[in-house]
Amino acid sequence: MIATPPDMQRWQPRFFSIWIGQSLSLIGSSLTQFVLIWWITQETGSANALAIAGMMALLPAALFSPIAGAVADRLNRRIVMITADAVTAGCMLALVTLFAGGRIQLWHIYTLMFIRSTMQSFQQPAASASTMNLVPRNWLERVAGLNQSMQGVMTIASAPLGALALAILPIEGALMIDVVTALVGITPLFIYRIPQPSLVLHESPQSFLHDIQDGAKYIVGQRGLLMLYVVSGLVVLTVMPTFALTPLLVKQHFHGGVTEVAIMEGLAGVGIILGGVLVSVWKFSSRRVLIVLISFAISCGTVALTALAPGDMLWLAIFWWFISGVTFSTGNAPMVALLQGMIPNELQGRALSLLNMVYGLAAPIGLAIAGPLGDAYGVRAIFIAGGGLSALINLLALFSKSLWNIEDSLRSRQSAGTTPE
Questions:
Q1: What is the pTM of this model?
Q2: Which CATH superfamily is domain 11-195 in?
Q3: What is the pLDDT of residues 148-179, one digit of tens each?
């Protein structure tokens, strides 16, 4: 049972105070992630070291996402959010102390990344689930738009802000920004109460596992949907390592520094947003599968082209990276629409969380493989092989009858009036 909606005359100060605080906390975390990745790049020059850092940042999503939603539903969400921000701030303060004392080691950074990512795995579902109890129903779509805009800002701004912080502050000063923004994120949570839905205390862990099994059974029973999950997992496994190794490519092959990395990452974020705008005004054809696979093939192929650019033509690499961002969006949006149309409404949460699990497991596996190979054969080889192989996977998937049958099934649902709402 959902709690009574907040007072319509009083909800704005509470919601926007909490939203702004949490947004600033996320921006601080993104900035810090860039700072730490660049420090690892400078200090080690190792693809394997960057791959391990990527694994520590991504693995908690696969390990804890399945239970984080249940925690958000069954425990006090305000306490979950306060705890997550407080633990993150405490760990970052410890890291600042280690840097200031000259005692920092790689394993310290890896441990922090794992803990922080774990906290975010619990914080984000709690924050998202709280929205229903903080705003009127007619504001839910606007809040979703605000959150999407904030994600775009983080994508564009985290690298340039991180580069700026490193330019004017010592690294411990740059890392203190995360501590400050975490405290800013916590403060409104001490001031305002978040309405909590009635807890379903009789539910057991077994019932939660049963829900996950229902979602998995549905996916396995739909051959086209299962094939889409498999293809998506293989693409993430092969291309995701390139995102973690981008600073090393810029440093080693293009002889660039933190500013060049920031420009490359920032323009990729601009490309992702422009791709989203293009999709918003583009009327999808009936063959969404074709749009998805061709867009992803181009996005992955341009990853390989980025590394194939000559070492004195960084501008060309940045251009290909920008195109990769645009085509990622033009592939991802119709894929989400396809999944929403294919999966029954009552199963969407579980089915889509399982897709996130696939991504969360595939990415660390890919990084574990790519790290040693990058040190042995060079980071360019990882970009060329990963981008080329993932593009080939998308193109080969075009010949899958199971994938094409997804839309035949969707059209049958639509004609029968049973499409999920």
A1: 0.78
A2: MFS general substrate transporter like domains (1.20.1250.20)
A3: 567 767 777 788 888 888 889 999 999 999 89
